[in-house]
């Protein structure tokens, strides 16, 4: 099936019985080991199920989430995502791109299944794999405001691949800019602070720049945590975050209007989601918007067409 045709494929799924039959059919195909003579069958079966998802299969929520989860076909989809065969990995990752916006917060039970392989794809040296994974991560962050995603982005910061760490850091920055602050629990903020410390001392200069932007957002969103966070920091981390070593305020100077601009940028991205003609602002699916002077805070804006 041509990629353009597959991207818009919709197969009506009006009741749970149809969805179950489609899940069973996909499972039967993915049960076969990955070989040269099964690749095409697997690709076509996954493309078909993405069409079922677009056709309303996801609306049978409990059955759908269970069907694509650990106890359903989820582990086999993950295996296909991690395949060295580009087309098979591509259609499997595209399925994630299709399901996540439709499930929104109901994607929560699937986070720990699909985020680890997605982060591993960010470390692939092949740019096609990387950019595809980067785009899907952006979609998940935009449509699924779930702080449990942060656990896996934090793991991405530990990867040996600089491009993986950069993508994970920008994902954290994007989540902070797009999600309401009340979604973050105290435990989530503890992990976020750990991520800031990791990024601030990373060997890669781009990751350290992201750390400064994340810190600026953090200090604006949760000023009550700033003092406890900064007091025990080492001089090295203070320097990388532009925090005075001593004799000065530990909190960075406030940047007027930063949060409202982030919210406006998010609203623009949400508006574009409802217009089929919208396209990605860059080929990689990422556009950085300058929000203020000084260390450059960014929010990832992904103008998505139909997924």
TrEMBL record:
Keyword Cytoplasm: no
Keyword line: Cell cycle, Cell division, Microtubule, Mitosis
Molecular-function GO term, any one: microtubule binding
GO annotation, biological process: cell division; mitotic spindle assembly
Biased composition (Polar residues): 279-292
Every CLASP N-terminal domain range: 20-241
Any one Gene Ontology cellular component term annotated for this protein: mitotic spindle midzone
Subcellular location: Cytoplasm, Cytoskeleton, Spindle
Pfam families in the record: CLASP_N
SUPFAM superfamilies given in the database record: ARM repeat
Segments of this protein annotated with the region Disordered: 242-292
Family: Belongs to the CLASP family.
Name of the protein this chain belongs to: CLASP N-terminal domain-containing protein
Lineage of origin: Eukaryota, Fungi, Dikarya, Basidiomycota, Agaricomycotina
